[in-house]
Design brief:
The structure is a single chain. This protein is an alpha/beta fold and 339 residues long. The chain folds into 2 domains: 254 residues, Rossmann fold; 66 residues, no CATH class. The protein has 13 helices and 12 strands. It has an 8-stranded mixed beta sheet with strand order 6-7-8-3-9-10-12-11, with helices on both faces. A hairpin with a 2-residue loop joins strand 4 and strand 5. Helix 5 crosses helix 6, helix 6 packs parallel to helix 7 and helix 10 runs parallel beside helix 12. Bound molecules: adenosine-5'-triphosphate. Pfam families: ABC_tran, oligo_HPY. InterPro entries: AAA+_ATPase (IPR003593), ABC_Ni/Peptide_Import (IPR050388), ABC_transporter-like_ATP-bd (IPR003439), ABC_transporter-like_CS (IPR017871), Oligopep_ABC_C (IPR013563), P-loop_NTPase (IPR027417).
Length: 339
């Protein structure tokens, strides 16, 4: 069995807003096996970025981790003193924030920015750092001659490659990439994802890929964690979750996105409505107000994250009926009725 690198257990993250608080992540549990790409997927606002940032403990000033464990290599980093956590960042866990433009400083050359990580954090000397910069650029397919360029001199796709090089600088075990291909055209998306996959398997690292786009997960991930309104809806091997989803939200997401591989994917059916306001989440299953299959229990009782199969978890009161619901979910009318 594959060894687990990261194990998130019942993670809770809240934002303080005025006198109240928003439970943006409300009991998330999932695993990241060594040497795998795990897609963290869900609509905007469902808590993906909050989870990703909590894993590096670079969270907003008004955010706090209010519960749970983040076991990285067996150590609970949710409880680690900031000094030790800081030593772990870049070296063990690297984070690529949502826009590569944000992660790169426009006023410095990319070599300067790579050097900041390599020399300041990695302790490399000038010569070693230069050699590593060249190696990193080669790894991400950019000529070393462009190391002295500024971020604006690169195209969007190339900036994303630079951000990947930066993340890989100190040989981390885990790279967390937040929406790494959003805003790029489909051809460039594929190139970046292919490269991420090649580097992941060459270096044997693990990657958490945060995305709202389930076709990105289908294209490149080994496993999928589907989030909805701060909770895990479904998690497991990519094929099991996307080919035979057990949660109606995953069934709906699958209908709502085109296929990145370019195959004919038929009619796209959006999930009507929007995720709930997390300041006032509905009782019971948070997806119930939009779910075409919701029954009374769904509106009153929160479903537990149970087993759909030994390695496949799902949080749905009707998970036992998944095969039947999948057939109904494949029909566009199912998603137009009831909501
Ligand atoms: N600094 C903040 N203060 C208050 N609420 C916040 C803050 N940051 C995020 N939130 C709220 O937390 C919830 C989760 O947001 P988060 O950004 O993690 O979701 P997401 O799935 O990553 O969405 P997106 O892809 O749009 O970033 C949302 O309801 C959002 O409004």
């Amino acid at each position: 069995m594959t060894e687990t690198l990261l194990s998130v257990r019942d993670l809770k993250v809240s934002y303080q807003v005025g006198k109240g608080s928003i439970d943006a992540v409300d009991g998330a549990s999932f695993d990241v096996p060594r040497g795998s790409i795990v897609g963290l997927v869900g609509e905007s606002g469902c808590g993906k970025t909050t989870v990703a940032r909590a894993l590096t403990r670079v969270i907003a000033d008004n955010a706090s981790i209010t519960g749970g464990q983040i076991l990285f290599d067996g150590q609970d980093i949710a409880a680690l003193p900031e000094r030790e956590m800081n030593a772990l960042r870049w070296r063990d866990i690297a984070f690529i924030p949502q826009s590569a433009m944000n992660s790169l400083d426009p006023v410095y050359t990319v070599e300067y920015q790579l050097n900041e990580v390599l020399r300041r954090r990695g302790g490399l000397g000038r010569r070693q750092a230069r050699a590593r910069c060249e190696e990193l650029f080669e790894m991400v397919g950019i000529e070393a001659g462009r190391l002295g360029d500024y971020p604006h001199q690169f195209s969007g796709g190339m900036r994303q490659r630079v951000a990947i090089a930066l993340a890989l600088a100190l040989n981390p075990k885990l790279v967390i990439a937040d929406e790494p291909v959003t805003a790029l055209d489909v051809i460039v998306q594929r190139q970046i994802l292919d490269q991420l996959r090649d580097l992941q398997s060459m270096l044997g690292i693990s990657v958490i890929l945060v995305t709202h786009d389930i076709s990105v997960v289908a294209y490149v991930c080994d496993r999928t964690v589907v989030m909805y309104a701060g909770r895990i809806a479904e998690a497991g091997p990519m094929d099991a979750v996307l080919m035979e989803p057990s949660h109606p939200y995953t069934m709906g997401l699958r209908n709502a996105f085109p296929d990145l591989k370019g195959a004919a994917s038929g009619v796209l059916t959006p999930i009507e409505g929007a995720p709930p306001n997390l300041a006032f989440p509905p009782p019971g299953c948070r997806f119930a107000p939009r779910c075409p299959f919701a029954v009374e229990t769904c509106t009153t009782q929160q479903p537990a994250l149970g087993m759909a199969a030994p390695d496949h978890r799902v949080s749905c009161h009707r998970a036992d009926e998944a095969a039947k619901l999948r057939q109904e979910a494949a029909r566009t009318e199912t998603w137009l009725a009831d909501v």
